[in-house]
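Closing statement on the iron/sulfur cluster sub-project.
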Amino acid sequence: MELIDCKSLTLEELGSHLAEMEVPAYRAAQIRSWLDRGVTNFDDMGNLPLKLRGELNKRFHIPSIRIKKKLVSERDYTVKYLYTLDDGENVESVLMKYHHGWSQCLSTQVGCKMGCTFCATGMDGCVRNLLASEMMAQIETAQSDHGVRVSSIVLMGMGEPLDNFDNLLRFLYMLGQPGGVQIGMRHVSLSTCGLVDKIYKLMEHKFQLTLSVSLHALNDNIRSQMMPINKRWPVSELLKACSIYAKTTGRRISFEYAMVDGVNDSDECARELAARLKGILCHVNLIPLNTVPEKQLRRSSDKRLGSFKAVLEKLGINVTVRRTLGSDINASCGQLRRMKEKE
Ligand code: SAH
Ligand code: SF4
């Protein structure tokens, strides 16, 4: 029998498993409390009878992660972790310090199958989805290792969160559980390359999170060239979904736009962007491209970025330029894992 991931279960689900095992319901809360404290072995759960610990070991497992590498930026307080999962796979996560507290960028998959041309994560495809418990463990491990409390998270690490929908949903519901990390939805940003069907599915849950949509181009030819997903869900369908999502949830969409020299950074592109975003409750975040050694793409010049931003502002678009934290430690995701795999 395949072991069940105990940590990804809700208290109610755990309770029903225990009921099947004829174990009293109050044990579920005891077990949950150990899990929330980061215990990864039933044998360490001191208030459970020995016999029960044995039975739990036969039915469940508790996924854990270990820190394989930790890099601390000398320029800012950014910390980058390379974590190893139980099956030996590696994922990255980055802790960032802002004036309002610590924010953590989490991975949702080992690799990614979306194959965007500018991204290091997608270069070797997707190895597997992360479990909800493995997303949670990234936060718990960073908090206890670095001695900080994470108050907001961004799902912008390795992987496409909406391509791992069921585990993602489970994780989002776990975030607010009593006794857990207690991160409210308003402190969650979820970044997607634009899986339109899943955007509609997510909308049904009416989460108060921030949806970040990696747009990067408004012209279908340019976007399809950068992001293969655009062939499945072209810009018009994506923007329609975003507009409905913003209206339904009342939450402003954040459009991510990585500036690639000579590809998507002309003033013409900025004008097209502004025209197509008119009327959508949104914000545009310009990102200086992080150059990936294996890729030929270059970052747009500061001058080009400034001009692009000015065009958008003039046309009434709300726009910011993303701060690049931890640039001395390759803090953009996907790069550290690749370096390790090569070693
Ligand atoms: N798969 C999701 C989330 C992970 S990628 C998505 O694509 O949105 C997180 C963000 O990093 C996305 O906006 C992605 O477009 C961006 N990104 C990927 N590679 C990058 C690079 N080399 N430079 C700048 N941004 C990059
Ligand atoms: Fe996947 Fe996002 Fe990278 Fe595209 S940018 S390959 S969707 S992780």
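The pocket of S-adenosyl-L-homocysteine (ligand 1) is lined by residues 112, 118-119, 156, 160, 191-193, 214, 256, 258, 287, 289-290, 292, 332 (CB under 6 Å). With this model delivered, the sub-project is considered complete and its resources will be redirected to Aim 3.
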